[in-house]
Amino acid sequence: MQPNDLLSQRPATPGRAHFDEAIAFAGVRCPAPIRGNLVHELNVGSDETLSPTYAGRSFSHDVPKYRLPAQGMSADAAYQLVHDELNLDGNPSLNLASFVTTWMEPQADRLAQETLAKNLIDQDEYPQTEAVHQRVVSMIGRLFHAPAHETPTGTATIGSSEAIMLAMLAHKRSWQRRRESAGLPADRPNMVMGADVHTCWEKFARYFEVEARVVPMEQGRYTIAAAQVEPLLDERTIAVAGLLGTTFTGQMDDLESINELLARTESERELHIPLHIDAASGGFIIPFAQPDLRWDFRLSQVRSINVSNHKFGLVYPGMGTVVFRDSSDLPQELVFHINYLGGDMPNYSLNFSRPSSSVVLQYFNFLRLGYQGYAEIVSNVLANAQALAAKLQDIEAIELINDASAFPIVVLRATEPQVTDLTELSHLLRERGWIVPAYTLPPNAQSVSVLRMVVKENFSRDMVDMLSHDLRGALQALRKQTAVHPHRPRHRPHC
Description:
The protein is α/β, with parallel strands linked by helices.
């Protein structure tokens, strides 16, 4: 199998299935299917309507689901209708699937409300908001040790997906210009990355026609190092992606070895191949938990870094940031200057209009917490995650892949997968309210199924105890069920 063949074979997160029998642990018979992983299709031809039980008090007609209602309703009725439907969503406080921040202080909530109407792109109309934006980018660049003798630059984005695409577009264009100036062909660019990357990397490769040279995983090795990267480098490589915290297992690539490889490649082969660090998950963890760890601009070949502020930057979604080591890493032809909103406004983004509230909230957190405040929160989050890992590590039938030693992420696998179905275990936990995803790893480790728990600031030690208790109970129920009905199909038809 060729590395770039892996993109088409990467497994999707498994969908929710029905239980095959009533689960004593959950105390529920014939549970309704959980459709959290399914894409909602737009049913333009449907005549389905909404008829809430309190409708008679507010309006006397059904409300169509898939077309604009002919008549409106009171704001209170519309609010109640939407509010009640959203009650079917999971509880964010029990959502260990998501890395995204689900709680901020009341003062931050007020700032969010006050800035909802401000468009971040309107720099001429909202100059102070743009000043705050620049301060936030500068603070992040300094946190990541941007060299004082160079001119770091960057921008806030909707999330790390946009940040990664902006960074890789810059590296692609820089590579093309270097090739053209040397009189060499500038077609068929490629980039090197591990199979542990987020889906947005695959999107970039497909959307912007860059060959993705993917290092497959192996059982027992779920990250990449120089040894895996080196065979895939050539004169058409625009960049290498290194991960500071993977989505799949919560581990980090061997960034120092990759940096040494790229430095040696530039020295010996005269190939300038930048290292981009995807610090979406770890960018607000490692600087406070392991400040001496060299992963950022202290590594010579690191030319750009992205981080997800809406993860451990402790800001509501969606916000990311991309920072370049020096302004020369961002080709100026990719920066657009517009004047139809007032003055001259340089813009480097895939999105144009975007909310300013997330940038303002990040500035609020930086002022509110400072370095010491973030360090204390990160320490507490890691302690809670490690406490959860400690409670789970001795449970029969499972083993830890990640014990939260570096990132607040606990990942486990079944020691007897033919007996312990982690997807069923995830469903049982959902019956207790916990949202804990089960999924298979990418090729060539697709035979490994894992359960992942992301511990965030609002996940207390008491919740650690409750989750570990419920997980033990779910495992016992699942193993008892399998022992009683070893040959019964795992999933049953609709009730």
